[in-house]
Specification:
Elements: H1 4-7, H2 28-36, H3 49-54, H4 56-70, H5 78-91
Helix pairs in contact: 4-5
Bound molecules: zinc ion.
């Protein structure tokens, strides 16, 4: 994958690992969330983004529910799980 300017359409992405270099503008579920509220720029401009994707207390609460549903997981996975839950909070339900 080339430089971030070649694949980012929202203007806010930074280059991570090849599998993580995905722009919100190329993710249909995220685009759908943006279209619901008329955001045409970037998911970070969605009025609910900070509350459901960045607020650690919300992620902590969702993580507790996730554990109840799917069981315990290694402590080392907590940060990556929070990121996964943040994604689910934003785009997980149609
Ligand atoms: Zn982008």
């Amino acid at each position: 994958m080339g430089p971030v300017t070649e694949w980012c359409l929202c203007g806010n992405c930074t280059s991570l690992s090849p599998e993580e270099n995905v722009c919100c503008r190329e993710t249909p579920k995220v685009m759908h969330r943006c279209q619901q509220v008329g955001v045409n720029t970037c998911i970070t401009e969605h009025p609910g983004f900070e509350a459901v994707a960045l607020n650690p207390y919300v992620l902590q609460a969702v993580y507790g529910t996730y554990l109840q549903l799917f069981g315990d997981m290694p402590e080392t996975m907590v940060h990556s799980n929070y990121r996964h839950l943040a994604y689910r909070n934003v785009a997980g339900v149609p």
